[in-house]
Amino acid sequence: MRRYFLWIVLGGLLSLTSQAYDGYARLTAVDPESGKVGDVASAKGENLGKSNIADIYLTDGKNDFKAVIMEQSGEEIKFKVPKAQAGRYHLMILTAKKDSMIEQPVVFTVEE
């Protein structure tokens, strides 16, 4: 009986956890993975529409570079690579409420 109860509790927690993340913006890839300042790149993922995302940035953890969004849908954000020094940057999103900046596990390399 105790084991059965434990499985019910764990199942409920997993269900709540997966539902808690439904609707949150998440980047999963960028194409191309590198480019020069002024090039257009495409970040892909989930819940990327204007109701969830206000802005997109490149960040090295210390410096943030705001990119101009060219097109935006629920699954894709096309952005112009901002003026930044050559190097590797994580993509970071600013939520539509402008209350959170969330660094994503997606990397873009700015070329010289």
Describe this protein with a few key phrases:
112 residues; eight-stranded mixed sheet; 1 helix; globular; alpha+beta; Immunoglobulin-like
How many independent structural domains?
1
Radius of gyration: 18 Å
Looking at CATH, the homologous superfamily is Immunoglobulins
Q: What do we call the CATH topology? A: Immunoglobulin-like
Number of strands: 8
Instruction: Name the helicity range.
Output: 10-25%
- List SSEs in N-to-C order: HEEEEEEEE
For the termini, the CA-CA separation is: 64 Å
- Major β-sheet strand ordering: 1-3-6-5-4-7-8-2
Question: Treating each run of at least 4 consecutive H or I residues as one helix, how many helices?
Answer: 1
Average pLDDT reading: 87
Please identify, by name, the CATH architecture.
Sandwich
Global outline: globular
Main beta sheet: strand number and arrangement? 8 strands, mixed
Strand fraction band?
over 45%
Level-1 CATH class name:
Mainly Beta
Low confidence ranges: 13-20
Oligomer: single chain
Please identify the structural class as seen in this structure: alpha+beta
Describe this structure in words.
There is one protein chain. The protein has one domain (25-110): Immunoglobulin-like (Sandwich), CATH 2.60.40.10. 18% of the residues lie in helices and 49% in strands. The chain has one helix and eight strands, in the order αββββββββ. The protein has an eight-stranded mixed sheet with strand order 1-3-6-5-4-7-8-2, with no helix packed on it.
